[in-house]
Specification:
The protein is mainly α. It has helices at residues 5-38, 43-50, 55-77, 87-111, 113-117, 128-153. It is globular.
C-alpha cells in the first residue's frame, strides 16, 4: 500500500521541520557569535565567528545543506518532487540517526556532560535545550522511520 494519511502527515511534518532547521541555521551568522551561542554552538565556534573566520559559516552551511537534503528525501517519498535514488534507505538512515541522537543526548547529558559540551555549547547537562532538541530529533526521526517503512510497502 501507499503511505497512509497519518504517515504522510508525519513525514511531511518531519521534512518541514528539517527545512525550518535549515533556515534557522542559515540565519545564525546574521546574529553573530551571540546567535551561535544561543543556538548551541560550541564556544570555540562562537569565538571563531567573532574573529571573522570562515569555519562557523561553513559549519552552518553544511548543517543547512544536510537538513535540506533530508527534507528533499521526505518530499520525494511524498511525491512532491521527483524520485530520488535509494529513498527508502536514506529515510531509514536519517530516521535511525536522528532517533539515536534524540535518545542518546539526554543520557550523555546526565552521564558525561563534559563530553557533550564539546559538541554542543548549551548541552552542559540535562536542561531545556537538550530536552527540546532531543524531542525534535526523536519526532523527526520516527517520522522518517515511518516514511521508510511505509515507502517500502508501496513498491
Amino acid at each position: 500500500g501507499r503511505l497512509s494519511k497519518v504517515s504522510r502527515h508525519w513525514l511531511f511534518a518531519a521534512g518541514s521541520l528539517c527545512v525550518a532547521g535549515a533556515l534557522v541555521h542559515l540565519a545564525i551568522p546574521i546574529g553573530g557569535s551571540a546567535w551561535y551561542t544561543y543556538f548551541g554552538a560550541p564556544a570555540a565556534l562562537a569565538s571563531m565567528a567573532d574573529a571573522g573566520l570562515a569555519r562557523p559559516i561553513v559549519t552552518v552551511l553544511a548543517i543547512s545543506g544536510a537538513l535540506l537534503g533530508m527534507a528533499a528525501y521526505a518530499f520525494s517519498a511524498l511525491g512532491f518532487i521527483k524520485p530520488l535514488p535509494a529513498t527508502r534507505l536514506v529515510l531509514a538512515i536519517v530516521g535511525v540517526g536522528l532517533s539515536v541522537r534524540g535518545l542518546a543526548f539526554p543520557l550523555v547529558a546526565v552521564q558525561a556532560p563534559e563530553q557533550l559540551g564539546r559538541v554542543c555549547g548549551r548541552c552542559d547537562g540535562l536542561n531545556a535545550f537538550v530536552g527540546l532538541t532531543s524531542a525534535l530529533c526523536v519526532f523527526i526521526g520516527v517520522g522518517y522511520l515511518v516514511g521508510a517503512w511505509r515507502h517500502g510497502a508501496k513498491t
